[in-house]
């Protein structure tokens, strides 16, 4: 599932309507640690957090009608997939900073156009999502500090923003089936005194 989400985001960033800076850059999904040194201008999307979106949780069973039979199943869970986006340049000094800022800015503005991912971008299992796929750009959780994150990666802090995409997953395969009712028969009963 997550590889399909990577492919979906890659398709968005390489779309013919995307800014030229994005289409000309490499797209990577690697951990941006001290060993990450791309050979070309690169936009890196590091998937660093997965958590259930409890606000979108639905406890009601899902009922689906097929012919004359209803199938009942537990609802899908909704997972927030949080990427950290960073830009990487092979230039030096001021040219490096300028290229990274330009690439990062183009990505932020382009991805902000899609509060819900368009179906034309969806790849693999994401093409069968039971709900629209929402995305938020540059939203950080209150109180979240990034200093420990950069320390853990062993690199100096970099300009970055987050992309959160919420996908559905079906961990339950138990279903129940019920036949539909085609009619009701009413019988009267005579009472004898």
Which characteristics define this entry?
alpha+beta, elongated, 4 helices, 3-stranded antiparallel β-sheet, single chain, 193 residues, 8 strands
Structure description:
This protein is of the alpha+beta class and 193 residues long. It has one domain. 22% of the residues lie in helices and 27% in strands. The protein is built from 4 helices and 8 strands; from the N terminus they run H-H-E-E-E-E-E-H-E-H-E-E. The chain has a 5-stranded mixed beta sheet. It has a 3-stranded antiparallel beta sheet with strand order 3-4-8, with no helix packed on it. 19% of the residues are buried. The mean pLDDT is 86.
Task: Describe the protein's topology.
Blueprint: H1 2-13, H2 20-24, E1 26-28, E2 42-52, E3 62-66, E4 69-73, E5 77-88, H3 93-111, E6 135-137, H4 147-153, E7 161-169, E8 175-179
Parallel strand pairs: 1-2
Antiparallel strand pairs: 2-5, 3-4, 4-8, 5-7, 6-7
């Amino acid at each position: 599932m997550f590889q399909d989400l990577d492919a979906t985001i890659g398709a968005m960033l390489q779309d013919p309507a995307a800014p030229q800076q994005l289409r000309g850059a490499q797209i990577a999904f690697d951990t941006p640690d001290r060993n990450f040194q791309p050979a070309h201008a690169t936009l890196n999307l590091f998937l660093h957090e997965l958590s259930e979106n409890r606000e979108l949780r639905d406890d009601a069973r899902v009922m689906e009608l097929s012919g004359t039979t209803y199938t009942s199943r537990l609802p899908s869970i909704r997972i927030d997939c949080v990427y950290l986006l960073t830009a990487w340049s092979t230039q030096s000094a001021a040219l490096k900073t300028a290229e990274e800022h330009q690439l990062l800015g183009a990505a932020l503005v382009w991805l902000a156009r899609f509060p819900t991912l368009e179906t034309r971008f969806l790849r693999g299992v994401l093409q069968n999502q039971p709900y629209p796929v929402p995305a938020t750009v540059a939203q950080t959780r209150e109180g979240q500090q990034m200093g420990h994150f950069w320390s853990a990666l062993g690199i100096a802090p970099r300009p970055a923003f987050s992309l959160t995409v919420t996908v559905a997953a079906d961990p339950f395969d138990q279903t129940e089936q019920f036949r539909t009712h085609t009619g009701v028969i009413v019988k009267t009963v005579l009472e004898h005194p």
